[in-house]
Amino acid sequence: MAAQPKRGGVSLPERRSAAKPESNILARITSSPIVSRGKQAACDAAFVSKKLLRSTGKAAWIAGTTFLILAVPLIIEMDREQQLNELELQQTSLLGAPPTASVSK
C-alpha cells in the first residue's frame, strides 16, 4: 500500500532553505547574545518572584495562625471582662448605691 496524501486539512508552507542567512533576520535576532541574556534574566526574575511569593505566603500563614491562636482569645476575654464590668455598674446603679470610682494614691 502506498501512502496517500490526506484529503482536506491544512497544508503548511514549504520551509525556506538556510542558504541565505541574511534573509532570515528573525533567526539572527533570536540567536543573538543579547536576546539569550534577556531570556536568562527573565527566567531568573521569574524564579526569584516565585520563591518570594512562596515565602511570603508561608509568612502570612504563620502570622495568621499565630494571631488566631494568641490574639483572638485575648480579645474575647477582654470583651467578656468589659461586659461584666458594665453589668456590675448597672446592678449597683439599680440598687441605688453610687458607683464606686477606683481611688488611686
Low-confidence stretches: none
Q: Note the main sheet.
A: none
Instruction: Estimate the global geometry from the Cα principal axes.
Output: rod-shaped
Strand content: under 5%
What is the radius of gyration? Answer: 38 Å
Organism: Gossypium gossypioides (Mexican cotton)
Family: Belongs to the Tom22 family.
Subcellular location: Mitochondrion outer membrane
Keywords: Membrane, Mitochondrion, Mitochondrion outer membrane, Protein transport, Receptor, Translocation, Transmembrane, Transmembrane helix, Transport
Which features characterize this protein?
105 residues, mainly alpha, transmembrane, receptor, Mitochondrial import receptor subunit TOM9-2-like, Tom22_pln, transport
Could you explain how this protein is built, in words?
The chain crosses the membrane at residues 59-76. With 105 residues, the protein is mainly α. The chain has a domain at 28-94. Helix content is 65%, strand content 0%. The protein is rod-shaped and about 105 Å long.
